[in-house]
Specification:
With 366 residues, this protein is an all-alpha fold. The protein contains 16 helices and 3 strands.
Length: 366
């Protein structure tokens, strides 16, 4: 193995083929540029596109939304089991358990591609209801049922707060969900494909993907971004703080990307929404802090912000608790994970790479 190529972190390695998403020349889902999807499609329509391969017709869109509504019902036994999870549990651990527990109350008894598509729809529909109920209980409140007259993004905000959200809040949430829905062979998606390649089920693949997403270098990054902004505290402190952090070689979460070297297109789409919500919230100081840090990091390191940098602020302006930031990622990315699991299963080969051995040379046990 010594003469074979080795790429730490599999950087630059083509590990498979996909027709779901590409990050070449920007970002597109099934051939549709992300900026068009953000401007013209709903999150439900994007979810359908990812799962079925084509944009829905009007009839398919209506039927898909109806199916999502039907799948929002949580079995009483399941709800009671989830309510027993200690309030001290990490919310991502809770989400991982929720995805796994859903498998014990299956929607179909058979097993096969059609069932896995139904399971994907169920995960997409049920996880927001489960997460909102969890947060309501943590706040000492009674869970609120979803409404049939609200879309995916609006329903989640409704179930959290019990108040009908503003149009701007719904739009901001919907755009963030679309941007987080899929991103090629990232760590959690690759995890889902590895699990699927063993011929395991979708619930196992999604539970494993949630475990991968929990890490600070993947989904947990947006929570770390908010910690940075809170630590800086004021616009006046932003420049000295970031220059000292760079001098100390401190890693600043929310900047740089393994794939995007000149800028994350998702961050560019989310930034104007942050500015709009900040103005409405009267919290423009946070935007000033972020802009100062952003410009200096680019000036000194040529590192552009990634999606986590603006999304943390966006969720802050929507008054969401920090511990919900990464679970919100789950609510969106479950569509991408499911699409990749289905694609992997349709043309499967067990994913089993080799390693380079660097241990002690061969020796005898005397």
């Amino acid at each position: 193995m010594s003469d074979e190529n080795y790429y730490p972190g599999l950087e630059g390695v083509i590990a498979g083929e996909t027709s779901i998403c590409t990050v070449a020349d920007g970002l597109s889902y099934r051939g549709y540029p992300i900026d068009q999807l953000v401007e013209r499609a709903t999150f439900e329509q994007v979810s359908y596109l990812l799962l079925y391969g084509e944009r829905p017709t009007q009839e398919q869109d209506r039927e898909f939304c109806k199916r999502l509504k039907r799948q929002q019902t949580i079995a009483g036994d399941l709800d009671q089991t989830l309510a027993l999870i200690p309030s001290s549990a990490n919310t991502m651990d809770f989400m991982r358990s929720a995805a796994s527990l859903l498998a014990h109350w299956p929607c179909e008894s058979d097993n096969g591609p059609a069932n896995e598509l139904e399971n994907a729809t169920r995960l997409l529909a049920a996880l927001p209801v489960i997460l909102a109920a969890r947060q309501r209980r943590l706040d000492g409140n009674t869970p609120i049922a979803p409404r049939d007259d609200l879309g995916f993004a609006a329903n989640f905000l409704w179930m959290l707060n019990g108040e009908e959200p503003s149009a701007d809040a719904v739009n901001a949430m919907e755009v963030s969900l679309i941007l987080y829905a899929e991103h090629e062979f990232n760590a959690s998606t690759f995890t889902a494909r590895v699990v699927t390649s063993t011929r395991s089920d979708l619930y196992s693949a999604v539970a494993a993907a949630i475990g991968a997403l929990k890490g600070a270098l993947h989904g947990g990054a947006n929570e770390r971004v908010m910690e940075v902004l809170e630590e800086v505290g004021s616009e006046a402190n932003a420049e000295p703080w970031i220059r000292q952090a760079l001098a100390d070689k401190k890693r600043i979460m929310g900047f740089g990307h393994r794939v995007y070297k000149t800028g994350d297109p998702r961050a560019k789409l989310l930034k104007p929404l942050c500015a709009k919500l900040a103005e409405q919230a009267g919290n423009q100081q946070l935007e000033a802090i972020a802009n100062t840090i952003e410009s200096i990091v680019w000036e000194e390191k040529q590192l552009p912000p990634n999606l986590d940098w603006p999304s943390a602020r966006l969720y802050h302006y929507l008054q969401l608790p920090v511990h919900l930031y990464t679970p919100l990622f789950v609510l969106s990315r479950v569509t991408g994970w499911s699409a990749h699991a289905l694609e992997q299963a349709a043309n499967n080969r067990l994913i089993r790479p080799r390693s380079r051995y660097v241990g002690t040379p061969a020796r005898d046990w005397d």
